[in-house]
Design brief:
The protein is an all-alpha fold. The chain folds into two domains: 146 residues, no CATH class; 200 residues, no CATH class. It is built from 16 helices and no strands. Helix 10 packs across helix 11. The longest helix has 38 residues. InterPro entries: Ac/AlaTfrase_AlgI/DltB (IPR024194), AlgI (IPR028362), MB_O-acyltransferase (IPR051085), MBOAT_fam (IPR004299). Keywords: Acyltransferase, Cell membrane, Membrane, Transferase, Transmembrane, Transmembrane helix. One of its GO terms (biological process) is alginic acid biosynthetic process. It holds the Pfam family MBOAT.
Length: 434
């Protein structure tokens, strides 16, 4: 717990007090729930969930709603609002708020008992490897590990070290150079080379993947060295042959959270095909605004929902057959590119920029615009995922304990690649903004 507080306080001490208030509030309300009658229990539960959502909403969405209100005023001919509030967005607020909501839901549904020991819950909520960017760990997985005595073995230490090294490597040597390429070639959607977004989009996809996958590996590695096992957040998503499969492999902790606590609560697929697709659209609208407060995130969520609904319609009417190898191969390409193009929406600052994106994509890029250096940069990550896909691993695995000399050789190659290609510059994690 102390490590988590110290770790978070290095960013902002005021936000640390807000985090601690959230910890005390959710611990207290969860304990209180178990002592109430069913009717009062429901009232307190709704209050607890609403408070968490309001807490997230004030810090993350109030400025966006203020700007939206200002835009509407201008649209109706009123004067622009001259004053604008300044609210600090606490880092990782989306992750630890969802962490708390899942805990309250699990306690309310009586799937788990509330923590009797405050420090047990505080460690769950402030576990520093996942405090900033997740994964959004389930209480039923992490709390029992905190309550039981953890044995730190040689195998866990070596596995943790290998995950940590690989995570740092793909963040610094793959994600950061790709980020610099994107900022140089697409700083905005104005005055771009025609068709360049066909190239920039997949570069952004690999940048975000290497960045977030890198952090997740570091979190898993640090936790494993302490004897804990966190859930795997990525499972070779760019080899997925359809959107449904992709979202079972990308940001798994968020997609399963939305599935279990939103999609299923809305009825899931239990009320017919039309209602099922409506539920999907609601889920992905929420996924969009969870990622950020802005026009682009709302459009992104709707876009992803439509991609999923379109695929499910093709499957429902028998147009797509999963056993067809050619369709599966084409599915990998179209799934990757539909996701990549969707990430362009993250960068939209106003609805009008959507037309600039579509106009640029109406042209084909020049072959000379495809940079060889970018292909070289993503090669280690692609080969690693290909190897893991061939091994069909559930979690990233270097088989370090059975093949230590192979790992040492691989570590040497990582070091050499890092020395040659790392930009050696500080670049914040992409998901810090969420």
């Amino acid at each position: 717990m102390a490590f988590g507080i110290y770790f978070y306080s290095q960013w902002n001490i005021n936000a640390t007090f807000l985090l601690l208030i959230s910890v005390v509030f959710n611990y207290t309300l969860a304990r209180y729930l178990t002592s109430l009658s069913e009717e009062k229990k429901k009232v307190v539960f709704v209050f607890a969930i609403s408070t968490n959502i309001l807490y997230l909403g004030v810090f993350k969405y109030f400025i966006f709603l203020w700007d939206l209100f200002s835009d509407l005023r201008i649209g109706f001919g009123f004067a622009e609002l001259l004053w604008k509030p300044e609210i600090l967005l606490p880092i990782g607020i989306s992750f630890y708020t969802f962490h708390n909501i899942s805990y309250l839901i699990e306690v309310y549904d009586e799937r788990i008992l509330p923590c009797k020991n405050f420090f047990t819950f505080a460690i769950y909520d402030l576990f520093f490897p996942l405090l900033l960017l997740g994964p959004i760990e389930r209480p039923g997985n992490l709390i029992p590990q905190i309550e039981s005595e953890q044995t730190i073995t040689r195998e866990k230490i070596w596995n943790g070290i290998s995950l940590l090294i690989w995570g740092v490597f793909i963040k610094s040597t793959i994600a950061d150079p790709l980020s610099r390429y994107v900022e140089i070639h697409a700083p905005s959607f104005i005055s771009l080379e025609q068709g360049i977004l066909w190239i920039v989009a997949p570069v952004i996809a690999f940048q975000v993947y290497a960045d977030f996958f890198g952090y997740s590996l570091c979190a898993m590695g640090l936790a494993e060295m302490m004897g804990f096992q966190l859930m795997n957040n990525f499972k070779r998503p760019f080899f997925a042959s359809n959107p449904s499969l992709f979202w079972s492999k990308w940001h798994i902790s968020l997609s399963t959270w939305l599935r279990d606590y939103v999609y299923i609560k809305l009825g899931g697929n239990r009320h017919g095909f039309l209602r099922e697709n409506l539920n999907l659209m609601i889920v992905w609208f929420l996924a969009g605004i969870w990622h950020g407060a802005g026009y682009g995130f709302v459009i992104w969520g709707v876009y992803l929902g439509l991609c999923l609904v379109f695929y499910r319609c093709l499957k429902y009417y028998g147009i797509v057959k999963e056993t067809n190898l050619i369709q599966a191969f084409l599915g990998v390409f179209f799934t990757f590119y539909s996701f990549s193009l969707g990430l362009l929406l993250f960068r939209i600052q106003s609805p009008g920029e959507t037309m600039l994106i579509l106009e640029n994509l109406s042209h084909l890029p020049k072959v000379s615009s495809i940079p060889l250096m970018i292909l070289i940069t993503i090669l280690p990550l692609f080969l690693f995922d290909l190897w893991q896909e061939w091994k069909d691993t559930d979690r990233p695995n270097f088989y370090i304990t059975s093949k230590p000399f192979s790992f040492l050789f691989l570590f040497f190659l990582f070091f050499l690649w890092f020395s040659l290609f790392s930009p050696f510059g500080k670049q914040d994690f992409f998901y810090f903004q969420f």
